[in-house]
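Why should sequence recovery work at all? Because a backbone constrains its sequence more than one might expect. Tight turns favour small or flexible residues, buried strands favour hydrophobic ones, and helices have their own preferences. The token representation captures these environments compactly. In the example below, the structure is given first.
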């Protein structure tokens, strides 16, 4: 298991990977007597939360071109793959208490910076969601790490430019990111920002996140 949460009905929701490396969402009743698999995703699932109605929200990372996205998703374009490597995108998926996929979107970009000639073959942007939370309005906030300089940011973002990428001599530099998706069925991008280290090319990775009572994000 990678993460777990209890919903308001007392059920335990556990996410992780099965033996075939598929991401799974498992719900156990309050007595832990029975378990139901609510979903299987071609992804690595890193984090989970639940709302007051028992809907489940997950994030993580995927390189799959067949990852399930819904019609009104913010981003439906899948990651690019090549014989030398592939991009990886974060995602947000909302699952009903009975296991129906209500909303699912990619969140990522293939675009990155690389300096190193042939070393750069197969180098694409890699983005992974590591934490997820809901604010009081129902907006879904995810945070994690990325090497994708093309990851979408919004006007007025704290850091609109990613200090990240690949260098033959320096290796991989990652930046953190935080993104909020508005509440409602469409759940389009509300705001998004990079979080960079203060000295380049030092990496910054976000592993955990919380929201305070005012909805401010703490990473």
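From this structural description, the recovered sequence reads:
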């Amino acid at each position: 298991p990678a993460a777990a949460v209890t919903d308001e009905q007392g059920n335990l929701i556990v996410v992780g990977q099965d033996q075939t490396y598929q991401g799974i969402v498992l719900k156990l009743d309050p007595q832990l007597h029975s378990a139901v698999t609510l979903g299987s995703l071609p992804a690595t699932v890193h984090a989970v939360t639940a709302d007051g109605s028992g809907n489940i929200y997950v994030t993580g990372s995927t390189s799959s071109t067949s990852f399930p996205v819904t019609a009104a998703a913010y981003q439906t374009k899948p990651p690019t793959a090549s014989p030398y490597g592939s991009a990886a995108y974060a995602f947000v998926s909302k699952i009903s208490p009975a296991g129906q996929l209500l909303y699912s979107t990619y969140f990522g970009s293939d675009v990155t910076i690389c300096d190193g000639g042939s070393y750069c073959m197969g180098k694409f942007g890699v983005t992974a969601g590591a934490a997820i939370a809901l604010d009081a309005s129902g907006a879904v906030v995810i945070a994690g790490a990325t090497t994708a300089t093309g990851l979408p940011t919004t006007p007025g973002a704290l850091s609109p430019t990613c200090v990240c990428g690949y260098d033959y001599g320096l290796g991989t530099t990652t930046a953190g990111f935080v993104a909020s998706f508005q509440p409602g069925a469409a759940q389009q991008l509300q705001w998004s920002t990079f979080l960079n280290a203060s000295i380049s090319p030092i990496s910054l990775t976000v592993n955990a996140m919380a929201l305070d009572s005012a909805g401010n994000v703490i990473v």
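A few observations help interpret the result. The first strand starts at residue 3 and ends at 6.
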